[in-house]
Design brief:
Elements: H1 21-30, H2 48-57, H3 64-77, H4 79-90, H5 93-96
């Protein structure tokens, strides 16, 4: 499996994206230095993390399902690393993923 070359969007294109007004308010409350950040709406169907990544990647050849599969492969392949790194924060991984 070849890694993706990640070149995030640097410019907001109002023809492609809709500003998420609610997220924008939260962002402005979180920090005063948000003049360069623009939250955009993404499909809210359980894949919103992956849709957000696709918006940032701007690569029409990639699908949310592929990102989800790549995430699973990464987690399974490097289970020991993630377990050792995040168990102190989230508890035992086998229990944390059941939540």
């Amino acid at each position: 499996m070849v890694p993706y070359e990640f070149r995030p969007n640097q410019i907001f294109d109002e023809r492609k994206h809709i500003i998420d007004a609610v997220a924008k308010k939260y962002l402005e409350q979180a920090t005063s230095d948000v003049h360069h950040l623009v939250p955009v709406k993404v499909t809210a169907n359980g894949n919103c993390l992956y849709y957000s990544i696709l918006v940032l990647m701007n690569n029409p050849a990639v699908a949310t399902s592929e990102l989800r599969v790549r995430t699973i492969i990464e987690l399974v392949t490097n289970e020991t690393y993630y377990s050792n790194t995040y168990s102190p924060l989230a508890g035992p991984i086998d229990i944390a993923i059941q939540a």
